[in-house]
Specification:
Blueprint: H1 27-42, E1 47-56, E2 60-61, E3 64-65, E4 72-81, E5 85-94, E6 97-113, E7 118-128, E8 140-149, E9 153-162, E10 171-181, E11 186-205, E12 208-229, E13 232-242, E14 256-263
Antiparallel strand pairs: 1-4, 1-14, 2-3, 4-5, 5-6, 6-7, 7-8, 8-9, 9-10, 10-11, 11-12, 12-13, 13-14
Length: 264
């Protein structure tokens, strides 16, 4: 659960380079692979395109701040095909640094109807944080499964493969989300989750520096109020974490995060 940003599938990501070591992470290649394989699954069925633009007070991923407490512009496009297939890509930039991506992702997903009340979705997502050297540890590929009950209850599990670290073990995450409609286009929104993570720390022995990857498990959650009317959506959430390690140089997560978005 990447709360509270409502975008899960977004704008096409262009190739980029980062750093001075020549390393490149290119979600475009992942999206191109999705585009080349998808016709085999959907057999050239009809498709529809939708999108979202949004402004958030901070970019937060599973309770962990990715950007400082500053306005973040977000854009998303998704392509939905017959038989439940969809493709998506997204990009986010800090409003004060519009020339650098804060986050980008590419996604392929497949949905099924299990019953009149239950739906299921499987997805594969690639996340990249090219504009923030401190957020390279968030670069990852995720494979997830989710179950949705009447758009009210959402359950999800994910296997996470980090690509921005030397430790390439799989990590797990699980979350539950709740959405309850209220009068006058309002609704309550809440979620809880738990995830495994790694972070680097340093030790010195006889003036020699050693780098370590330490594993931790922490929980996160949010509760807030949502207003939705036609293409417009406004959400204000109280965000909290438990057991999240403090990392030198990482921004703190704001206790309140707000997002306004427009869909088309």
């Amino acid at each position: 659960m990447a709360a509270p940003c409502p975008l899960h599938a977004t704008l096409p990501c262009l190739p980029w380079r980062r750093g001075n070591d020549g390393a490149a992470h290119r979600p475009w290649y992942f999206l191109a692979l999705c585009l080349s394989c998808l016709p085999l699954a959907v057999h050239a069925q009809s498709s529809s395109v939708s999108g979202t633009v949004a402004l958030s007070s901070q970019l937060v991923d599973r309770g962990q701040a990715v950007t400082p407490q500053t306005p973040v512009l977000q854009g998303a496009l998704s392509w939905s095909f017959a038989k439940g297939w969809s493709l998506g890509a997204s990009a986010s930039v800090e409003a004060r640094k519009p020339d650098r991506f804060a986050e980008a992702l590419a996604q392929i997903a497949r949905s099924w109807s299990l019953s009149p009340d239950w739906q299921m979705q499987a997805n594969l997502v690639y996340y990249d944080y090219p504009g923030n050297p401190q957020a390279h540890s968030f670069d990852r590929t995720e494979a997830g499964l989710g179950w949705i009950y009447r758009d009210v209850l959402t359950l999800g599990v994910a296997a996470i493969y980090p690509v921005g670290k030397t430790d390439h073990h799989l990590y797990g995450a699980a979350d539950i989300g709740f959405h309850w409609p209220l009068p006058r286009h309002f609704s309550l929104s809440a979620g809880l989750g738990i995830t495994q993570t790694t972070y680097s720390y340093y030790a010195y022995y006889r003036h020699t520096r050693y780098d370590y990857d330490r594993r931790d498990t922490y929980s996160y959650g949010h509760a807030g109020l949502l207003w939705n009317n036609g293409p417009w959506r406004l959400e204000v959430d109280r965000v909290a974490t438990s057991g999240l390690p403090h990392r030198m140089g990482y921004p703190d997560t704001a206790p309140w995060v707000a997002t306004i978005s427009w869909s088309f």
